[in-house]
Structure formats: C-alpha cells, structure tokens
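Box 3.1 — From sequence to structure: Phosphoadenosine phosphosulphate reductase domain-containing protein
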Amino acid sequence: MPIRTSYNTQIQSGADLTPDLLESINQHLWTLTPPEILAWAIDHLPNLYQTTAFGLTGLATVDMISKISLERDQPHLVPLIFLDTLYHFQETLDLAQKCQDTYAVPLRVFKPMDASTTAEFEREHGAELWKVDEDMYDYLVKVEPARRAYDTLNVKSVITGRRRSQQGDREHIPILEVDATGLIKLNPLALWDFQQVWTYIRANEVPYNALIDQGYKSIGDYHSTKVPTGTSGADGERDGRWAGQQKTECGLHKDYFKMRAAFMAAKKKRQEQQQLSSTMITA
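Predicted structure (token representation):
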C-alpha cells in the first residue's frame, strides 16, 4: 500500500491499524511537526481524547490543539481526561482548573472507584497503599479509572504526553501505536526533549504547574515525586518520580490485562487473609 494512501486512510478502530499500515503512517508522522501530527490525528483518529495530568508536555499539547481549533473556528476539538488519584499536589489541581478556564476545554475527571476523597480511599484500602502493594495502588488510582473513562466516553484514541527523552519504557515509543486492548495511542511530542517543550511553554505563555519553578520537572502524586537530581540521562527529568525504585511507569501504559490479573490475584489474597483473621478472632 502506498504511503500516501495509508496515511490518508480514515481509521475506525485500533483493529484497522495492521502492522504494515501502522508502520506506513508512522513513517509519515515522523516527517511532521507536533502541531501537524495533532491536526492529522484530529482528522483521522476515531473518538479522540487527551489524557493528561497537566505535565509540561500535556500542556503544550493542549495549547497546540487550542490553536488548531481557533484556526478552524471550532471549540476546543479534543476533550481532556484527568485521572484524579486523590494524591495530587494542590498545585496540580489548581492548574487543572486554570487550564479549563484558559482554553475552554471540556474536562472529564475520573477518581478511584467508590472514593471521592483521600480519607474514603484509605478507609477502604489502608494508608500508604503505594508502599504496601504498589501494583494494586497503580491499578486502583490509574488503571481502573482510565479504563472506566474509556468505556464511559467510548474512547477509541488517546493523546499522551510521553516522549523518548524521558527514557525508561518510553525511550523507543513510536508516534502512533495500538495497545493490547485495541486503544490507539498518539504520542505527538515523542521526539521532543524537555528543553524544546519548556521553550514552547514559555514562548506561548502556556499556564504551567507552580512546582516547576521550584525545580520539579515531572510531577505525579505528592508521595512519590521529588525534585530530580539529573543523574540519569541527558536531563534526568523523571529522576524525581519513584526515586530509589526500579519503576518508570505508573501502570497506565503497561499491559492492561496483566495489571488487572495482578490486581485480582492480590485482591483475592487479601480477602483470604481477612477471612482467616476473622476466623481466628471468632475461634
């Protein structure tokens, strides 16, 4: 199939993206700028949303989409999904509201199931679950809410803020990919480094997290985010995430089925332990 025919194909679902077609489209997308990639995605990808925790890459993407929308005389063309883990910095929550106000962008917020506050979550799962069972924590605050968001909103494609310069599992990501669930993922700034993103933010006066001015670069939950040391890689921008752990992802971009299976196994084990404890107390 010629490349020109391939990249102009209207995609209906992840199943349409055969390996050959995906490779052909990626070859074309490599030649485009991030705004051009986003314009292509808006025109060709089905049920497109942007998932973001309002990091710098996500913010640059929101601004680029806003400019495309204005050029087309349309409201903001890609709605946002924000996963509120209940452990975000207040600065992140403030920024989410500021972004919504600045860009008039539709924002859908999803929290852990059956918990709207940190206190409710900890009553159900205990304090510092991320220390006790980090995979269960990741599943409860990120993976399950994301899957619920995709099902609720009928999401077929998502824009992410992942970049190759962030290293770890992201070092070789393509611009366009399909995950194990069939979800299409677009990484429009995959080839940009931190400095390019930061230059765009400043040049376009994009709102950003106040913690950036305190030395943070990659900002997640407050219990697992520190100012990076810059010791790993060119700019070490994700050094401050999960410091001291062999971990580079929160679970959102891992295999969903493996994450769910691990969660179900851990849940079953926990229930068995609780039943055993209850039996011993009764006896």
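Summary of the box: The two ends are 71 Å apart (CA to CA).
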